[in-house]
Specification:
The complex is a heterodimer of chains A (325) and B (715). Chain A contains 15 helices and no strands. Chain A is an all-alpha fold. The chains are: A mainly alpha (325), B alpha+beta (715). At the A-B interface, helix 2, helix 3, helix 6, helix 8 and helix 9 of A face helix 1, helix 4, helix 9, helix 16 and helix 22 of B.
């Protein structure tokens, strides 16, 4: 298995280079360094000289991919792409346009993002699977139908609505929790409860529907009939056998997103004032801070690859037939 | 499961209840009755270095921390400059090309240099900061730190020792040199190098030094600047090329605040930047507050500077100020609060809700909540709604020193040029765009139709009937009203487009409007614009574009009509008229004249007006300039925005000052009253918890019953 993991990690390098190159090309097709400089310098008193100085300060005064004026390897290394990208493979992300160290920002913001995303993931998974198994348990009854209708209703409502409604009722009308904000340590609990509650409720519709489909497919298989024939209770059949055999598709969806929980949620973090990585990314896109966007895309790609590897490993745990070579 | 869940929920809520009197308090650990202002910021500041920060969201902080030599009087209108750290507002002395003194009223053409000599008051001290800390031998404790020492520090407060020192004239000169530093990219370097003697050359010298220095810190004390020199410990001198009376206003901006060299040495050490310990993030000033907590991702906390030099609340103001209680604190030592907490609040809904809960002391009014807060009387005056009055909230309004306009590209073959037909075309369009209606529909009445480039509150603006734009407005039975659309049609016909068609070719007149606006709100506005030209049977094609492309089009002169605005840097008409000055054309020179308007008569008057002192003569020239631009109509003067703000009853000394950025020191609050109101307004409502539990039981119970039945049936 170790050699498999090592091989997969090595495969990741060309993928990351490709992602990096693609991000770079997309970003610079839309924006020239001059555009970035103008945006950063504002609308007033921007001179051509100021733009040049900004570009020099941020290392954007070099050619993009190929430095014709340079000699030897410097043709490739003395370029914007190389100088801003190579260091990322050592997880050195440099500085954003605001002068702050990106690595430091990521480390600081990861905590708040996880504080929301991890409980939402765990609680959401438990609630959705339980709800889906209950629907399967009562399949072809009015309870199942009601559950499916409820799920479709929940899915049809915009995520933003849950946030606004949650803030309005829980925080504004009933004064039970702070409407937004964040704090360190134990104080964080009061700020986390509402976004977690809202996110879990918002995810029930699609999550439970998806798991129900998986379990319905499983429940028609021979091993389930065998289990029932052995006299096992329906609860035991569902929660021991069907759940275990339904884990592969569940893991496909769940484990792959596990590392991405670090990246946070864009809307939730923005509305609840959570200083996480989601809001960091969206701010950087809006401000055309290429250094931060590039770092976040790189990190996202890396974590996605890690997620895929973890998924493969988890397959072998839940299904002994799967062997990683 | 349900029981356990309920138990957990109950426990959690009990824990929360134990935390404070109000369950929804977003400031855990803060005393509700602390003498602290609570506010918010929507966008995190990018720069707090006074050489770099320019945006209003940055100056909101730097204005409280740094002290330039001058400031604006808090209460007086029109805006008046008064000393801050200087002992007087300097008057320029003029010199000719040989350095000989000239009279105050010497013609601008004879003046080679204007010399400003500024004397600062002795005894002003910097905030406590580790950069000034010295050991028993008098050596700086933290100027030669060992590698790894900084890595253990998370914030400036982690440095055990702090120190201070007296403010000296050299600190001001040092900061002026910093404007030319190649590593700082000061947004005003380009502009200032046109005015301050030797600044351009210093910039070039520093650029070369930076290139040859291979990353070592540039010690600006080793570089001289002809235009900024220290006269003695408390006096410095600035030399300006020619005559530039508006320079005095720049001396009230943080760009010209002092920076101690010790701070730069301290922050330049290895490892500092990696911990975000830079002058851009950890300011060092002499102002009434210092930045105690700097987490722009969450909150910024200002605390009272213990070394502040003891300024007092102003005792001069108008009768209206006295009646409004704005002179009640006259003579009291500033600041009147112990600090301020600014929380990051990106979305308007939570911001508004927290304001209504008493967790923010003041708030703007977004479009979403406007109807909830403001109504208009029969006479059109804004009033607070009953619910706002019940909470003792006050409404504060002011007309911004800003202007929104629709510009015509004067280089465009259809709408540009100074010919009579083109002029009439632009005048016709100016009448057709009914901005009175626009303000009512899209701004909830928060604006005043613009009559010219100069907004109210600035010298040169004329109120009432005398100040109208006669090409767009007329006086009917003593009331100012927009000229009828028939007048626009008539002008359009005279311009060669009867009924919106080219008289020669019969082709319909199609105009192109470039805009950065997008989204549902923008669509409604853009539809409205099309509708305005429909009245003249003229087609308007909207070309949506992003910020960069829009800028590019304007720069290259590829736009035809475009929407733009300007916010005053300082209260002088020159700051608006220069946007129409020919030599400042965007195309070719990269100036700020986006319309590329170039009228020799206007240019001549501008050159005369900019050097004049405020007075009847200057007003006369301004009136002539106003008439020229109103007649030529390179812009459709849209509106002067009106800002509406709300403050709670416990907040006093609030008077909008659009020029000053250091008004936090005047703010007073009544903390016990605020604490009491917060408790009253935020009593937790508990029945939803019980109701929620009941609903949960109601949902789960049938499922449990059905499951049991099922199990029995199977058995």
């Amino acid at each position: 298995m170790l050699s498999y993991i090592l091989r997969r990690l090595l495969y990741a390098i060309p993928i990351l280079i490709g992602v990096n190159l693609l991000t770079f090309a997309l970003f610079f097709v839309v924006n020239t360094p001059d555009d970035m400089a103008r945006l950063q310098l504002g609308a007033k008193h921007v001179t051509a000289e100021a733009i040049e100085r900004w570009k020099t300060e941020h290392g954007y005064d070099k050619p993009l991919l190929l430095n014709e004026a340079a000699t030897g390897m410097e043709k490739l290394t003395n370029t914007i792409f190389f100088q801003h990208s190579a260091a990322m493979f050592a997880f050195r992300f440099g500085k954003g346009d605001d002068g702050r160290d990106i690595g430091n920002e990521i480390r600081t913001r990861m905590g708040p993002s996880l504080a929301i995303a991890l409980p939402v993931f765990v609680i959401g998974l438990l609630v959705n699977i339980t709800f889906a198994l209950l629907m399967v348990f009562f399949r072809s009854t009015y309870l199942d139908l009601g559950g499916v209708v409820l799920c479709v209703m929940l899915m049809s409502i915009s995520g933003l609505f849950y946030i606004i409604a949650g803030q309005y009722f829980v925080a504004k009308l009933w004064n039970l929790l702070p409407i937004s904000g964040f704090a360190d340590g134990a104080d964080a609990l009061r700020f986390i409860l509402l976004p977690v509650l809202v996110s879990v409720v918002a995810g029930i519709g699609s999550g439970a529907r998806w798991y129900r489909t998986i379990f319905i497919e499983e429940i028609g298989k021979d091993y389930v009939r065998t289990a029932r024939a052995k006299g096992l209770s329906e609860v035991r059949v569902l929660f021991r056998h069907v759940l275990k055999n339904g884990m592969i598709p569940i893991l496909t969806g769940a484990v792959v997103v596990l590392p991405l929980l670090f990246m946070g949620s864009l809307i939730t973090e923005s509305f609840f004032g959570i200083p996480g990585l989601g809001s960091y990314t969206i701010d950087a896109i809006q401000a055309q801070d290429f250094a931060v966007v590039r770092a976040m895309v790189f990190l996202g790609s890396f974590l996605y690859i890690v997620g895929l590897i973890l998924t493969d490993i988890s397959y072998s745990w839940v299904d002994p037939r799967v062997r990683l070579r | 499961m349900t029981r356990a869940g309920n138990l957990l929920l109950g426990l959690g809520l009990l824990l929360l209840a134990a935390c404070s009197d109000t369950w929804n308090d977003p400031y855990p650990g803060s005393a509700a009755d602390a003498n602290v202002v609570y506010s918010a910021f929507a966008e995190r500041p990018k720069h707090l270095d006074p050489a770099r920060s320019y945006s209003s969201n940055e100056v909101e902080f730097t204005g409280q921390i740094y002290e330039p030599p001058l400031q604006y009087h808090f209460l007086k209108r029109p805006y008046e400059l008064i000393p801050l750290t200087a002992d007087a507002v300097p008057r320029p002395r003029y010199q000719d090309g040989r350095g000989r003194p000239l009279a105050d009223d010497a013609p601008a053409a004879q003046i080679a240099q204007s010399v400003y000599e500024i004397r600062i008051r002795p005894g002003i001290r910097y905030q406590p900061h580790p950069a000034f800390a010295r050991d028993a031998a008098g050596r700086y404790r933290y100027h030669a730190l060992a590698a790894g020492f900084v890595a253990e520090k998370r914030q400036i407060a982690d440095f055990e020792h702090t120190g201070t020192r007296e403010l000296v004239a050299a600190d001001y000169v040092y900061q002026i040199k910093r404007l030319a530093h190649p590593g700082l990219s000061s947004p005003i370097f380009g502009l200032m190098s046109e005015h301050i003697v030797g600044l351009q050359a210093l910039g070039e010298t520093l650029q070369k030094a930076a290139q040859t220095g291979h990353g070592t810190r540039l010690d600006l004390r080793a570089f001289s600047l002809e235009g900024a020199e220290v006269v003695d410990r408390y006096t410095y001198r600035i030399r300006i090329k020619g005559k530039y009376p508006q320079f005095i206003y720049w001396l009230a901006m943080p760009f010209f605040a002092p920076i101690p060299w010790e701070a730069e040495v301290f922050y330049a050490q290895p490892g500092m930047a990696d911990r975000n310990f830079t002058l851009d993030w950890q300011p060092v000033g002499t102002g009434p507050f210092y930045l105690a907590e700097n987490d722009p991702n969450r909150r910024m906390v200002l605390k009272k500077n213990p070394n502040f030099h003891g300024e007092t609340y102003p005792d001069a103001g108008s009768e209206a100020d006295r009646a409004a209680g704005l002179l009640a604190d006259a003579g009291r030592a500033l600041p009147l609060i112990d600090g301020a907490v600014f929380s990051l609040e990106k979305e308007t809904i939570p911001y508004w809700s927290k304001f209504l809960q008493g967790y923010y002391d003041s708030s703007g009014i977004s479009s979403d909540s406007f109807d909830q807060a403001v109504t208009f009387s029969a006479g059109g005056d804004p009033q607070l709604t009953d619910s706002m009055r019940a909470q003792h909230i006050r409404l504060v309004t002011t007309v911004a020193t800003s202007l929104w306009y629709v510009g015509f590209n004067m280089l465009d073959p259809v709408v540009g040029g100074l010919g009579e037909d083109r002029r009439k075309l632009r005048q016709a369009l100016s009448i057709a765009f009914d901005y009175d209606e626009y303000i009512s529909i899209f701004l909830n009445g928060r604006g005043i139709p613009a009559q010219g480039p100069i907004p109210p509150g600035m010298f040169g603006h004329v109120e009432g009937v005398k100040g109208i734009n006669p090409h767009v407005y007329e006086v009917h039975e003593g009331r100012i009203q927009r000229r009828p659309i028939e007048a626009a049609r008539s002008l359009l016909a005279e311009a060669g487009y009867p009924d919106g068609r080219n008289a020669k070719t019969g082709e319909p007149l199609v105009l192109y409007f470039d805009t950065m606006a997008s989204g549902p709100d923008a669509k409604a506005r853009l539809d409205w614009m099309k509708k305005q030209l429909d009245k003249l049977n003229v087609q308007l094609v909207v070309r949506g574009t992003d910020y960069n492309r829009f800028q590019d089009k304007i720069r290259k002169g590829n736009a035809q009509l475009f929407e733009w605005g300007w916010n005053a840097d300082y209260p002088d008409p020159e700051n608006f008229f220069f946007l129409l000055y020919g030599p400042h054309k965007k195309v070719g020179t990269g100036g700020e004249n986006a319309a590329n308007y170039d009228n020799p008569e206007f240019n001549r008057l501008f050159e005369r007006m900019k050097d004049m002192d405020n007075g009847p003569q200057r007003q006369q020239v301004i009136d002539q300039m106003q008439e020229i631009v109103r007649r030529d109509a390179p812009w459709i003067f849209a509106y002067y925005p009106k800002s509406f703000g709300l403050v709670h009853g416990w907040v006093t000394n609030v008077k909008p000052n659009l020029m000053a950025n250091n008004t936090l020191k005047y703010r007073r609050i009544d903390p016990p009253r605020r604490a009491q109101r917060r408790i009253e307004w935020n009593r937790p409502v508990l029945w939803p918890i019980g109701a929620g539990a009941l609903v949960l039981v109601a949902v789960i119970a049938p499922a449990v019953i059905a499951w049991r039945r099922h199990e029995k049936k199977v058995a």
